Amino acid sequence: MVDLNPKMLEDIPVTSYSDNSTLLIKTGAWKYVQPSYEDKLPACSHQCPAGNDISKALDLIARGDVAAAARLWRAGNPFPASLGRVCPHPCEDQCNRGQFGGAIAIHMMERFLGDRSLDPEFLPKAKPATGKKVAVIGGGPAGVAAAYNLALAGHAVEVFDDKPAAGGYLRTGIPAYRLPKDVLDRELALVEQTGVQFTLNTRVGRDVSFDELRNRFDAVIVTIGFHGSRPLGVPGEDHENVYNGVHLLERILAGERPELPRRMAVVGGGNTAMDVARSLLRIGVEPIVVYRRSRMEMPAIPTEVDEAIAEGIRFEFLTAPSRVIIENGKVTALECRKMRLGEPDESGRRRPIPVEGSEFPVEVGGVVTAIGETAELDFLPDEARDGWRVAADERFVTPVEGVFAAGDAAFGEGTVTAAVGAGRRVAMVVDAFLGGRELPSVAPPTQASWERPVNIDQTVHVEQLNPAYFTEVPRPEIHELDPQTRSTSFDEVVQGFTEEEAIREARRCMVCGTCNECCNCLFFCPDVAIHKRSGAFGFDIDGDHCKGCGICVEECPRNALSLVEVKS
Amino acid sequence: MRMVIKGNGAVAHAVRLARPQVISAYPITPQTSIIEGIASMVAEGKIDARFIKVESEHSALAGCIAAESAGARTFTATSAQGLALMHEVIHWAAGARLPIVLANVNRAMAPGWSIWTDQTDSLSQRDTGWMQVYCQSAQEVVDSVIQAYKVSERVLLPTMVILDAFFLSHTYEDVEVPEPGLVDGFLPPLDLPQKMDLEHPAALGNLVFPDRYMEFRRKMDLAHQVALGVWDEVGREWGELTGRPYGLVEQYRMDDAELVLVTAATTASTARVVIDALRDEGVAAGLLRLRVFRPFPADLIRTILADRKKVVILDRNCSFGHHGIFHQEIKSALYELPAGQQPEMHGVIAGLGGRDVTVEDLRGMLMGVWEGRITKPVTWWNVLEAKGAETGAVAMG
Ligand code: SF4
Ligand code: SF4
Q1: How close does chain B come to A14, measured CA to CA in Å?
Q2: pLDDT tens-place string over residues A448-464
Q3: Are residues A320 and A401 in the same domain?
Q4: Same-fold call for B2-176+203-242 versus B250-391
Q5: Does residue A214 fall inside a structural domain?
Q6: B residues 83-122 near A, CB within 8 Å?
Q7: Which residues from chain A sit within 8 angstroms of residue B205, using beta carbons?
Q8: Which-ligand-closest: CA of A559?
Q9: Measured from the CB, is residue A95 less than 6 Å from ligand 2?
Q10: Does residue A387 surpass a pLDDT of 80?
Q11: Which of A79, A185, A209, A410 suits A560 as a labelling partner, its CA being 20 to 30 A distant?
Q12: Mean model confidence pLDDT for chain A
């Protein structure tokens, strides 16, 4: 104890020292700013069209709770196992880990969690029934995502699809070597478990009228996708050996093995073109991809192109068809012209310009077209149509009362992932509509459905992290079947992560913008004003003693704290 | 064990023998090989300590302060700009009465940029409450670092052990490095009377009102007075153990000396050669080498210099606008002598920024004073003449 009434020099300590509590001194009165825990959007989630809560889930895995992570990932996304396999993973392009050893293999983590949660126990608990009924037209990724989220919100949902099975493009457009059908079937079975009713082989406008649906349901969501390729617009294309890529692919993926010429030209540079070419290769046809721009401009997922090249598929770049050459009633070649690239067009890509007199034949016995797709909208009333798309505003609201639209037919985003995100968002709008709440002026972003609060107006990029806390750790290798084996089979090419690999990869995640209780704030606070909550996640800040120095904010490795002004 | 090592190596070996628990340091020429040596020893397990790499000298000493406050024995080393950057926490270490030992390799301050020796860096820290020991050989470096821990921990004051850049830091010598057992017997483990204790939380260095501040400062000053005796005693004890006794100052051929050179550090070795030569020529010359400069042994120096004829004080430093710093200190110590016992005193400023101070230089200044050719109270040795000094042109141009 310090002697408070010293008589001699010996009665005082050698240096100033107080064994009274410093809590007496309310240093908090000095501050004009104070720290506050505020999760922000990590760069990865900012890029994820499906709205996955990546950082939180990876943190849960890193802490050893794989089940909680799997539950979290499936909470608003009915297709993690599928998306983990087919999504072009834009999340990884922006992943901050990219600057510290290589982006997190997020799609592999999604696939791992998706495969882990193919069991009803991983489904979120549904809200009590509301008595409201929703019809969803189109059982593709957008429709199913909307149905799943609305069913979990307590509504009775019925999905109408003209095919014998739901899944849309996931089923008809994606080959089994990328997405095994049983994975898709199991994800759809889980959606059924939430109470969604699938009415299949039923085409709206043929088997049931649009008006009938409007009468029977409180809300209708149109989520039909694209069907069919646009025509090439060249002479000879009505020959029977000129095929529509989407339809041909559907048939092959359904298990048909049609009689096809030995060599075929596949016209286009998008994902459908890649899927058609690689599927043809697997059934013994030699495909030649004909694309009018260069490799750089190809809209297909780059890794899909890499894989096709690795499988030995031939590409003719800067080449466009001019005529189908037919001799004695048989296709003998596709006449093409060389192209050169001019100024960028409205899509930002450089416009191809034909080179005069450069015609040359590509010798093939047949042609497959895969150059952009269209939707079939005849069942809709005129006011709900706007050219090739469904007329819908930024809230997914159409001019017809109680009718909403999302997905490719409305906005044409063109990826399965964007469709899932759109389904998630339209569900929030329709839920508000059914609950009699005011509709927002713009549909809420996917992250608005997350359980944890996140400031989605701020994205955490590398510049917002504290680099002192991160060292380089290399990205793991992803195992694939060798090109020899895979070009002759529809077996899945990419091999999934083991649990051990997944945990190791989750530990590489820097958990950007997301508090993970690393306790750095607590260690650094010079006023001991930060306290770990006992038995609960996170920390409390003792405002009486926090003097607003901001050291905790500066030292948070992942920018999960913000300084806010103190209003007097 | 006998080893051929540099002054910097001598520091590292002494630190190893003192068994510090925390070393916190930042590199700077010409000190770097000290902490490199220590870092290797830590890496090889020869020192069982935590080595903290920091981003600046300020943090280096702050790290020692924190560790020492928790009761750990600590060490750091620095030089020149690095020591200056530490300045704020230099005060803190002394005021908190933490017995930290720091090795400072004397290096001239910039600009102009210099890596060579002079004493301005360490003497700029004269009034911080640290003890200072100036060494003349690698052997003295080993011995002084070990003694510094013992004295510091007895009186609760930090010590700077100081060695000349290159002349000492990077020059190899034959050194007797004591055995660990000998040092363990001499230097018990640190047991601070007042340290952080998780069971009894307390605020250290807290606010002190005017009614108490002076008492803390008075205690610090008294500790320095006590330390004079402790250095003396510890130096003698070390002598009994090793055959190498040390005092607060060193006297060479002083018994009947009439002409005395007062200086510190490695210049003293050169000086002994000159003193011997002058003695051979019949001049009664002697050398007084300053060793422990803070606390300042004023009484001892007064006794030694009383009744000498002439005293030359060589400063490798300058307090601009006044004299060399050792010169000022000696003059103030001798002020109390009765007029009849006062020697004639001359200050010489030489060897700044690493310029050599040779046998010829020392002979020149000593004989200049002895033969009455040097009459000014202060002489800048061997610099270009200033023609315009009276008009001010030299200062402004
Ligand atoms: S859906 Fe795509 S973008 Fe989103 S996390 Fe999965 S791979 Fe990344
Ligand atoms: S490191 Fe983790 S949280 Fe950060 S961007 Fe990458 S996946 Fe997202």
Answers
A1: 7
A2: 999 999 999 999 999 99
A3: no
A4: yes
A5: yes
A6: 95-97
A7: 15-17
A8: 2
A9: yes
A10: no
A11: A79
A12: 91
End-to-end, the C-alpha distance of chain A in Å comes to 39
> Quick check: A347 pLDDT over 80?
no
ipTM value, please give it: 0.80
From chain B residues 300-329, the ones with a CB under 8 A of any chain A CB are none
pLDDT at position A412 is 65
CATH hierarchy code of domain B250-391: 3.40.50.920
Pocket flag, ligand 1, residue A107 (CB < 6 Å): yes
How far is the centre of ligand 2, averaged over its atoms, from the C-alpha of A445 (Å)? 19
* Domain range for A293: 242-369
Q: Establish, for the pair of chains A and B, how many residue pairs have beta carbons separated by less than 8 Å.
A: 47
> Which residues of chain B fall below pLDDT 70?
388-397
**Which of A444, A472, A490 is a domain's end point?**
A444
**pLDDT of res. A227:** 65
CA–centroid distance, A43 to ligand 1, in Å, is 12
Nearest Cα of chain A lies from the Cα of B230 at a distance, in angstroms, of 18
Q: Interface of chain A against chain B, CB under 8 Å?
A: 6, 9, 12-20, 22
Instruction: Ligand 2, residue A510: give the atom nearest the CA.
Output: 1
Nearest ligand, CA of residue A107? 1
pLDDT reported for residue A231: 78
Q: What is the pTM of this model?
A: 0.67
A204 part of a folded domain: yes
Please check whether residues A303 and A251 belong to one and the same domain. Answer: yes
pLDDT in tens, A240-285: 999 988 888 888 887 788 889 999 999 998 888 999 999 999 999 9
Indicate whether A26 belongs to any domain: yes
CATH number at residue A287: 3.50.50.60
Q: How far apart are CA B76 and CA A162, in angstroms?
A: 79
